[in-house]
Amino acid sequence: MICEECGRNEAIVHIVQIGPGGRSEKNICMSCAARYGASILRAQQQNVSADDFLKGIFGSNQPAQTEEDDAPHITCPNCGMRFQDFPKTGQIGCSVCYETFHHELTPLLRRIHGSSVHRGKIPRRSGSTIMLRQEAEQLRARLKEAVAREEYEKAAEYRDRIRGLERRLEEDGYGT
Question: How many C-beta atoms lie closer than 10 Å to residue 14's C-beta?
Fold first, then answer.
């Protein structure tokens, strides 16, 4: 593969940039990589962020936006925070913001955390109880799906497993 920068040498360095505009890749040779390395050092000395440096390498994948162009124009009814303020601060204003900006935040949370549902850590003392309840909840969802697909044998298995978990919870004094 030929260097995408100089077009002369063999490309041996692969640069990947992942940003709001998607994923950009560039294959460059060793001498061009050395120039980029020197550019990075100069950028660090001039307090240029790595993100700005990579935008300079790849060019911006998105057209420049003004504050008026930022979408969407949604405001939280509780705290008054606008969604366009979120990228600037990196923080949500209040708990109502999660409901207000649900459609905008869900893809972002999935991309960052791999899921839009908070799982959290389970405490050691009551961990077994929480895990049993979570498992029963998941089995109930599978049971509904199995009944909807008319897979009654699987549904019966899920029902029996749910009953077993509920018995264990009652024995431990944590009835459902």
Answer: 11
Listed residue (17, 20, 16, 25) closest to 108, CA to CA: 20
CB 13 within 8 A of CB 33: yes
SS (H, E, C) 84-137: HHHHHHCCCCCHHHHHHCHHHHHHHHHHHHCCCCCCCCCCCCCHHHHHHHHHHH
Between CA 108 and CA 117 the distance in angstroms is: 12
- Residue 14: enclosing H or E segment and its boundaries? strand 13-19
- Which DSSP state fits 66? -
Dist. CA 152–CA 55, nearest whole Å: 55
Nearest to 64 by CA among 30, 21, 33, 28: 21
pLDDT tens for 88-146 read 777 788 888 888 888 887 887 777 666 666 666 666 666 677 778 888 999 999 999 99
* Nearest Cα residue to 166 out of 134, 142, 136: 136
Token digits for 98? 């999660």
Closest CA to 65 of 51, 84, 52: 84
